[in-house]
Design goal:
It is globular, with a radius of gyration of 15 Å. It has a six-stranded mixed beta sheet, with no helix packed on it. It has a single domain, classed as PRC-barrel domain (SH3 type barrels, Roll). The protein has helices spanning 3-7, 10-14, 21-24, 92-96, 109-118; strands spanning 28-30, 36-45, 52-58, 69-73, 78-80, 85-87. With 126 residues, the chain is α+β, with helices and mostly antiparallel strands. The longest helix has 10 residues, at 109-118.
Length: 126
């Protein structure tokens, strides 16, 4: 990951609204209390709309969940320039109760509907 996202917040502070996916990969994610809960492994982008569907995160032991890549609805992340990373309000209960993924979850709209509803988020494809 480049240092731009980690250290140069001038774009965020002055109203810049774009960031390279290269800069997002590897960015830290924190709980609302400031605890480091994981890192972004990669993004899943809708081919037709260009909307980001998920940030696939490595939670690495978040709330007792083993190191695992978990898709997180993009809307559950909020960039915090003071932390140089994202903040999420995802709870242990939400992670433990999330709908199980099948091997082809990226092509299963019914699963996505259940998943987004589980996190109380509007669908990215609408």
């Amino acid at each position: 990951m480049t240092d731009a996202l980690k250290t140069d917040h001038s774009q965020t502070e002055t109203g810049g609204h774009l960031v390279s996916s290269d800069d997002v990969t590897g960015t830290a994610v924190y709980s609302p209390t400031g605890d480091h809960v994981g890192d972004i492994a990669h993004l899943m982008i809708d081919k037709k709309s260009g909307n980001i569907g998920y940030a696939v995160m490595n939670f690495g032991g978040f709330f007792g969940i083993g190191a695992e890549e978990v898709p997180v609805p993009w809307g559950k992340l909020d960039y915090d320039p003071s932390k140089g990373g994202f903040v999420t309000d995802i709870t242990k209960e939400q992670l433990e109760g999330m709908p199980p993924r099948n091997d082809d979850w990226t092509r299963d709209r019914a699963w996505e509907e259940r998943y987004y509803s589980h996190f109380g988020m509007p669908y990215y494809w609408i």
